[in-house]
Specification:
Number of domains of chain A: 3
CATH architecture of chain C: 3 Solenoid
CATH class of chain C: Mainly Beta
Order of helices and strands of chain C: EEHHEEHEEEEEEEEEEEEEEE
Oligomer: heterotrimer
Strand order of the largest sheet of chain C: 5-1-6-8-9-10-11-12-13-15-19-18-17
Helix content of chain C: under 10%
Helix content of chain A: 25-40%
CATH topology of the largest domain in chain A: Rossmann fold
CATH class of the largest domain in chain A: Alpha Beta
Structural class of chain C: mainly beta
Shape of chain A: globular
Number of helices of chain A: 17
Chains: A alpha/beta (439), B alpha/beta (568), C mainly beta (256)
Strand order of the largest sheet of chain A: 5-4-20-19-18-6-7-16-17
Radius of gyration of chain C: 19 Å
Strand content of chain A: 15-25%
Shape of chain C: elongated
Largest sheet of chain A: 9 strands, mixed
CATH topology of chain C: Pectate Lyase C-like
Structural class of chain A: alpha/beta
CATH architecture of the largest domain in chain A: 3-Layer(aba) Sandwich
Distance between the termini of chain C: 43 Å
Number of strands of chain C: 19
Largest sheet of chain C: 13 strands, mixed
Chain lengths: 439, 568, 256
């Protein structure tokens, strides 16, 4: 007899929206149906073919092994390395992140998250200017003006507009979409621009200058702004500035279109100042559209553990932070790492090809439920239970709100947390053995 | 454990510097015990320190860390066999928080303010802080449900919400910050005084404060409301302080304690009409506290140097940032609160900062009864907590105060009365202000004293109170207070001469208050409506789950009244 | 004059942290002591002699009297000359990141290229690079308002992005081209760029940036008059006006 259980209000563990109204039907220990989630989230929760057992590469071929053998080999690799990199973290729970920090401290590694290829520049901007923000419910209940800059939520965060932004209605926004002005700033039209009231097309790489021009116009210093900036006429920019100043509550959401175009963190730095200055005229908040569902979470864990939210170098016993030097792509690009542990991220797909190729030259340990291009380069592969489907845990939404992920079904595999503990125990054991040998 | 021959200060039990042995059995103070002997002959012994107001955990603290790598890189200490790495000065990482408090002899610290919605985060961080016992105060002052109950004069539903909110947040007490202002800030505004109407809600801060005070007492909560006044940080705001305190005069406390605890009074004791004619009104405030018994306060002492301001008074932070051209973080929390974080530096030669520095000290020295005023710096707003020894020695030594005053802006004597105050606090006063009074004010029965049954938290300082002249030898005192000779927590030596020896996890106190089912049911209708319409998450995912408090210590309260009891 | 010569024993794959190689650190030590100074390669602590050949004068001296010669490929060796107050450090080759961090005095010269964060948070002294420099030359640390406060940096070749970010004092001279955002958030000091750059002086509040070649200028800079310097014409701009900055930007007019 197979029982059907209905799990209500599960938290989706795909993107930074962390929708928590997902209803899941479980039958015979498997997820049967997912309701309310977008197709990205549904697909994640429904699951697909996964790695069947731990493997170790022997003579160039990945061969099945026990979990303990995998932990031991992983520990061996980490201990031997002078500067191991522990990368990923964005698609697993904070509980796993905490064990990761412990392991990084223990072996003297550099720990970095996918922020390095995503909103790392936003973090650096925040270090210059702070983050004038709010929870998503504030946008839902108050925003009458929303700007999407360099992001495409219609594709990357499908339920964002209905739950939190353009189409959401709340206490002071009973009209929902009708009562709002939606502005999209981007280098090309996207599905998001289709739901916008105004589309401002800017020349690729000109975000910084456009923001400076806007700041001047907002401050009433528009006289010296030239007739065109970044492919936008001064009239259009002045219009935009006026719209922003007239807002009762404005929200700016931004994504990779601005974090990774020319200027990078300076773009965000400038946008943060624009929003701070808009607060002299109206109420404004700004928020990064975090991609992976828990990149925010590993940032929080790293910050309270080490003082820094990403790219932390533990090799000398004290946390050292310097993106440009201690970020995962920095280490890989310079060949300044001699082992990698990749967890809850697909490093080979994340990084530019030249950087990803580096991974072929060093021993790689992969912890992931699914095979992906990183698996091809891995020397140890450890399958794990999926946080948010098979394991409970904590995740942080794009606005910094912490939610608890549910466990919906059982899984024979250990959680990321358990795997990291297994590797840590093996590290301790191997160290003790070595110390006794020396004695 | 036996602590032998210390000069013990235990004011809660009438002990003021008596040579005696102390016994700890199974983690609690006892009449007799066996075991490890600590030689404390002639040395200063007091209960473990209790900090009733510091910002140590949660979203705004972590925001402070994230936006201040410049602060995190100060104060780094490497990993050792016992300790994880430490970083930061004004916004230390979690491990540094625990180790540094323990080194100073503190064993209990309460996080000053957390919104219910983000309490999960607070508890994640509290759990990471080693050694100390802790709790978190929960914010209620700009909350939609609270304001609606106050508007409707529905006190029993309000009490039901406070109880429900504390349970959802696993909070310890009711925190109110710039009430109503947090909601006004939702659209960029603020409230200008306690009788201003909160836009969209038809209530005044005065009504919110009175309502919450009454609900607090209906629930027999161990702590009183903990209040950060409206108009904090503004010249002339002392009138708001007095007005607000008068509001609460006639409300009866449900326990033997104050009806209101005022947070960081220094920031609300300002005279003048602008920063130009800014002056201290500490004497007026002190007179009020001397003449009335319904309120207590903590200093909120400002010290020169680096700080990070962080508070739920978001409009204040925006103002700070604009004034000082500093980086600014803001975080408004749907239906509940607002907050801001801004780095600051306080300068001796800046008149306003120098007067602020004087005000905190004036308050402590002019209030006659040390049970009414706690020693704090509103960490990290006034200064990081590691500087508590500096504050203590300023209170104990007139020569030290005089030496400091000589380095300040020359106008300071015209704006404060500090120069003319001769009083020097003694060890009894200090023990009260840093141990006995915070425990009593918070309603922590087993903290802040050394009577049998109290938690076995004891501090031994390398000072000889019977030989020492705390007025002249203030430098020695400061050095000894920075690193306790022994910090004992629950009968375990956790720190010795500044070295952390053990890092047991502390417990998290929270209050579970019972209310009549009928009121709880009525409340649920409101809440279900709010979650359906306004919150961005589901009701079923809102409350903090058990998993976040593996070391919980629950205090029961509410109606019907049970004696204050604890369940592990 | 006391001279010590240091040569890497092999190529370093994992970067080396050599903050102990500086005139101040070496001055009071004899050669044996210098050889046993700590140096880090990733998470391994080693001694200088594990990684380098060390030769030279044995007798202790003052920092002023010290000359340290580093010969070979030091492009993976970081933090050389960190915090130095006096003396000479000569790199005959290329050098890794953070060379001359927090320098307060003395001379650091590099015949090859310098990697990122050359002379970060410099306070005084002089740095000369014959080759190219990387990103963040004379810059500050993340989140700090003020970076370099004094001293002189000269690079004969080109430099990367974020040159002199948060500059508060001192001077930086790059003969070649410079990457994006030179002189960002500057509150003082002078920058000279012999070649071209892109969006210089973003959010600068004080100081002078002179660009001999082309530069894309921000829309928040106000065009002022044309000035002549050493027979060359420069367009003067005032900015960055987003923040009411009182900085001065000079951009070459026409080809030099």
């Amino acid at each position: 007899m197979s029982e059907t259980t209905l799990i209500k209000d599960a938290v989706c563990s795909f993107c930074g929206c962390l929708c928590d109204d997902i209803n899941v039907e479980v039958e015979g220990g498997k997820v049967k149906r997912v309701r309310h989630a977008c197709r990205l989230g549904s697909s994640k929760i429904m699951g697909h073919g996964r790695i069947e057992n731990p493997m170790i590469r022997k003579d160039g071929v990945l061969v099945a092994c026990s979990f303990q053998e995998a932990y031991d080999r992983a520990a061996e690799i980490l201990l031997k390395a002078n500067k191991p990199l522990m990368y990923g973290w964005a698609s697993t729970s904070c509980e796993a992140g905490k064990k990761g920090v412990l392991l990084a401290e223990e072996v003297g590694a550099v720990l970095d998250s996918t922020a390095t290829v995503c909103h790392g520049p936003s973090v650096i901007g925040i270090e210059e200017k702070g983050l004038p923000g709010a929870t998503l419910g504030q946008v839902k209940n108050r925003a009458d003006t929303i700007v999407f800059w360099g992001c495409n939520p219609a594709e990357a965060h499908p339920r964002h507009s209905l739950r939190y932004s353009s189409n959401a209605s709340g206490r002071f926004t009973p009209q929902g979409r009708e009562g709002r002005k939606i502005i999209v700033v981007d280098v090309r039209e996207t599905r998001t621009t289709k739901n916008a009231d105004k589309f401002v097309r800017i020349t690729p790489g000109s975000d910084y200058e456009v923001i400076s021009a806007l700041r001047m116009l907002v401050a009433g210093k528009g006289d010296i702004v030239p007739g065109e900036v970044g492919g936008v006429s001064k009239t259009d920019l002045a219009d935009l500035a006026a719209t922003l100043k007239a807002a009762k509550f404005g929200a700016v959401f931004f994504g990779l279109g601005i974090t990774h175009s020319r200027g990078r963190y300076k773009n965000i730095d400038n946008a943060l100042s624009l929003v701070a200055e808009l607060n002299q005229h109206s109420k404004f908040v700004i928020m990064p559209m975090r991609g992976h569902y828990n990149v925010g979470g590993i940032g929080q864990v790293l910050a309270w553990s080490s003082g820094y939210p990403m790219s932390v170098d533990f090799t000398r016993g004290m946390p050292y932070f310097n993106p440009g030097e201690t970020a995962a792509c920095d280490l890989l690009a310079r060949g300044d790492t001699d082992a990698a542990l990749i967890i809850a991220a697909d490093a080979v797909s994340n990084f530019p090809r030249a950087t990803a190729k580096m991974l072929a030259n060093i021993p790689v340990v992969q912890i992931d439920p699914y095979e992906n291009p990183t698996t091809l380069l891995s020397d140890v592969v450890i399958p794990c239970a999926i946080a948010g489907v098979e394991v409970e845990g904590t995740a942080y939404r794009m606005d910094g709100l912490a939610l608890r992920l549910r466990k919906m079904v059982d899984c024979e595999f250990p959680s990321d947390e358990e795997i990291l503990m297994g590797i840590l125990e093996s590290v301790h054991k191997q160290r003790l053995l070595k110390a006794n040998e020396g004695a | 454990m036996i602590i032998k021959g210390g000069i013990v200060y235990d004011p809660a039990n009438g002990i003021y510097g008596e040579e005696m042995d102390l016994f700890i059995d199974q983690g609690r103070m006892a009449e007799q015990a066996k075991g490890e002997e600590i030689d404390a002959h002639g040395l200063l012994v007091m209960p473990g320190g209790v900090d009733a107001h510091a910002h140590i955990a949660g979203k705004k603290v972590n925001t402070g860390r994230i936006m201040r790598p410049d602060d995190s890189r100060i104060g780094t200490e490497p990993r050792t066999a016992v300790c994880r790495p430490s970083t930061g000065y004004t916004v230390p990482n979690c491990y540094a928080m625990g180790y540094r408090y323990a080194r100073m002899g503190y064993t209990t610290v309460f996080e000053a303010a957390t919104p219910i919605l983000e309490s999960r985060h607070t508890h994640e961080e509290l759990e990471e802080i080693p050694i100390i016992d802790k709790g978190a105060l929960t914010l209620f002052g700009s909350n939609w449900q609270v304001m609606e109950c106050v508007r409707d004069k529905d006190l029993s539903k309000l009490a039901a919400y406070v109880a429900w909110g504390l349970r959802a947040a696993r909070g310890y007490g009711v925190k109110i910050v710039n009430p109503g202002g947090g909601e006004a800030w939702g659209f960029g505004g603020n409230v200008k005084g306690i009788n201003d109407t909160v836009p969209g809600f038809d209530v005044t801060p005065a009504e919110i404060i009175s309502g919450l005070a009454k609900a607090n007492e209906m629930l027999h909560l161990p702590h009183s409301i903990h209040l950060h006044f409206n108009n904090l940080g503004k010249p002339g705001n002392y009138t708001t302080a007095i007005e607000t305190l008068d509001l609460l005069k006639d409300i009866k406390p449900s326990r033997m304690r104050q009806i209101v605890h005022v947070a960081h009074m220094q920031f609300s004791a300002y005279g003048g009409t602008s920063w130009r004619d800014f002056e201290s009104k500490a004497p007026v405030i002190a007179d009020y506290f001397n003449a009335n018994n319904h309120a207590t306060m903590d200093m909120g002492q400002l010290l020169f140097g680096s700080a990070t301001t962080m508070t739920a008074d978001a409009p204040l932070e925006y103002g700070n940032a604009r004034l000082t051209h500093n980086k600014w973080s803001n975080h408004d929390i749907e239906l509940e609160e607002s907050s801001g974080v801004v780095p600051m530096v306080y300068f001796r030669k800046m008149l306003v900062n120098a007067v602020q520095w004087a005000i905190g000290l004036e308050l402590a020295l002019l209030v006659n009864d040390p049970w009414k005023i706690l020693m704090t710096t509103d960490h990290p707003n006034g200064s990081p907590f590691v500087n508590y020894p500096e504050v203590i020695t300023l209170l104990m030594s007139k020569p030290k105060r005089d030496a400091e005053m000589a380095t300040l802006h020359e106008q300071v004597p015209k704006r404060t009365t500090l120069a003319g105050i001769e009083r020097e606090l003694d060890w009894t006063d200090i023990t009260i202000m840093t141990r006995a009074a915070p425990a009593r004010i918070l309603g922590l029965q087993d903290k802040g004293h050394l009577g049998p049954g109290a938690d076995g938290d004891v501090t031994v300082y390398n000072l000889r109170p019977e030989e020492l002249d705390t007025s002249q030898d203030h430098a020695l005192v400061k050095k000894a207070l920075a690193n306790a000779l022994y910090t004992i927590k629950g009968g375990v030596v956790v720190s010795k001469e500044g070295q952390i020896l053990a890092t047991p996890p502390g417990r998290t106190f929270w209050v579970d208050a019972a209310v009549p089912q009928a009121d709880a049911d009525r409340l649920m209708l409101d809440l279900e409506d709010k979650f359906a319409k306004y919150y961005s998450i589901q009701l079923s995912n809102y409350a903090v789950q058990d998993a976040y408090l593996p070391h919980a210590k629950v205090i029961r309260a509410g109606l019907p009244v049970e004696p204050l009891s604890e369940v592990a | 004059m006391r001279t010590i010569t240091i040569t890497p024993l092999r190529e370093f794959r994992i970067s080396v942290e050599a903050e102990n190689i500086s005139p101040d650190k070496f001055a009071p030590l004899n050669i044996e002591q210098i050889k046993s100074r700590a140096i880090w390669q990733g998470n391994r602590q080693k001694t200088l002699s594990d990684l380098f050949a060390v030769e030279g004068d044995d007798a202790p001296a003052t920092p002023e009297e010290m000359t340290i010669k580093l010969v070979g490929d030091l492009s993976s060796v970081k933090r050389i000359a960190e915090g130095m107050t006096a003396g000479v450090v000569e790199v005959q080759g290329s050098v890794g990141m953070h060379a001359g961090n927090n320098m307060k005095g003395g001379l650091l010269s590099i015949t090859g290229d310098a990697d990122d964060w050359l002379a970060r948070e410099m306070r005084g002294g002089k740095v000369v690079v014959m080759g190219d420099a990387g990103n963040y030359v004379g810059a500050g640390y993340r989140g700090e308002k003020c970076g370099m406060r004094g001293g002189e940096i000269e690079v004969k070749g080109s430099a990367g992005v974020y040159l002199g970010e948060h500059l508060c004092g001192g001077s930086i001279r790059i003969e070649g081209d410079v990457g994006d955002f030179a002189g960002a958030a500057n509150q003082g000091g002078t920058i000279f760029i012999g070649g071209k750059t892109y969006l210089p002086g973003a959010e600068m509040s004080k100081g002078t940036i002179t660009v001999k070649g082309e530069a894309k200028v921000l829309p928040s800079f106000q065009k002022m008059e044309i000035v002549q310097i050493d027979g060359l014409a420069f367009q003067k701009y005032a900015g960055d006006l987003v923040d009411n900055g009182k900085g001065e930007l000079l951009v070459g007019v026409g080809s030099p």
